[in-house]
Amino acid sequence: MAQGPAGNWDEVSITGAIIRGFFQEFADSLRLDVAIAGAGPSGLTAARYLAREGFRVAVFERNLYVGGGIWGGGMLFPRVVVQEEAAPLFEEIGVRLKPVEDDLYLADAVEAVSRSTAAAIEAGARIWVGMGVEDLVLREKDRVSGVVLNWMAVERAGLHVDPLAVHARVVIDATGHEAEVTRTLQRKVPGLRLDTPSGEVVGERPMWSQVAEATLVENTTEVHPGLIVAGMAAGAVHGSYRMGAIFGGMLLSGRKAAALAAQICRGEG
Ligand code: 48F
User: Fold this and answer.
1) Atom of ligand 1 nearest to the CA of 244
2) Residues 90/82, Cβ–Cβ less than 8 Å
3) The Cα angle at residue 12 between residues 9 and 15, in degrees rounded to 5
4) pTM for this entry
């Protein structure tokens, strides 16, 4: 007669471990210092710096995978480039860089995503995948005070399912080229003017890599009380240029977004 397999577990043990594990940890993410929308390079970098400082931070990523636009490198060639001033942000988390021409450094896209993600998690950030930020929670004077979440699967299926919400003292819009979270705020609050020169989401211009990179950190600002823009979302909100597959600005922008969020959380903002 065939021997039964070893171990005391069965299917219900697997189910129980997953369900209890998820809910215990998710319940711990309901009141955050900082909620980050989007797990691309800027969101992951911001998460790492904030978590290192001891802030309660969670990243909500719509896709089932993290990394945003890093994976595909440039035009599906899975390599990314960073400039000298941003190189230490990759090096400090073990991403190996190869010096190439014109003071640039080359990294493997898969290594860049993996190490950026691991570093954020090791620092203490929680990353929730499959959950999109579909709206914001507002309080007095329309201060941004949290994110409204729904499963990407619900969004894709077009189901009418009410979302759930998480509170946060600061929200970082790191949703990339569409600046989705900031656009949602603008669309849903009539007459709202962002705290930017134009007062509204301008949208990204065509490519001019050097100018785009040079202005990205400066464009990483609190655009509305409680809402900071980072990465390509910062470029799009401020109407700057796109830069293509150079990623240094994304890292530096994520670090600045973290510093701004930390100031606000400490009551210095
Ligand atoms: O696009 P993405 O990588 O943004 P980023 O951090 O970096 C931009 C670069 O990848 C690249 C570039 C570099 O030179 O121009 O494009 O600014 O990552 C954005 C992430 O946000 C997720 C999206 O799936 C992606 O992983 N995202 C977008 N909208 C939402 C969202 C949303 N509403 N809720 C949650 N996640």
Assistant:
1) 14
2) yes
3) 110
4) 0.97
